Amino acid sequence: MRPSQEVAKLESVVYLERMDSSRVAAIRFFADLPEAELAAVADVAFELEVDTGQELAKQQGLGHAVFAVESGTAEIVIGGRPVRTIGTGDVVGEIAVLGSAPDPFEAPETPEGGQRTASVVATSPMRLIGLFRRDVWALDRQAPAAARRLRETMERHRAADEQRVLDEQQGSAGADPRRDST
Q1: pTM for the whole structure
Q2: Residue 29 to residue 37: CA distance in whole angstroms
């Protein structure tokens, strides 16, 4: 599927009503943001509901949106192996959305994202709050604390992924591959 088709498919399943900022504030990741930033996030956020077994992201696919889990759980899968479980309050997809440019907040605004570093598969029904790539970039001006937090989360997840690879290369049996890096 071409990237533009993938974005159109994703955009066709979202609710286009304005989201209330209290829903955004209820997610741990955004909870302590100032009200003005919560409102800025809510203005561009969309809701997505998925069923158990549905794939939210496919490893090596292009990432067009970042997701905060409002309810439900999912498994992060790298190279066909489950590595971590995520749930309410966690964020996924930020590496592909933010990590495809040296400084994604100064990159040209395009709908195409970077490559997904993992697959994400729902292990229960989920409700997610999503932000498209173009809207994440806009947040750097309107909600700098939210944008900074997304960058920090991306760096933590990247570091955990790099450590996981090192542990596997060294045959580290003591590390728990399901440990959440957030």
Answers
A1: 0.71
A2: 13
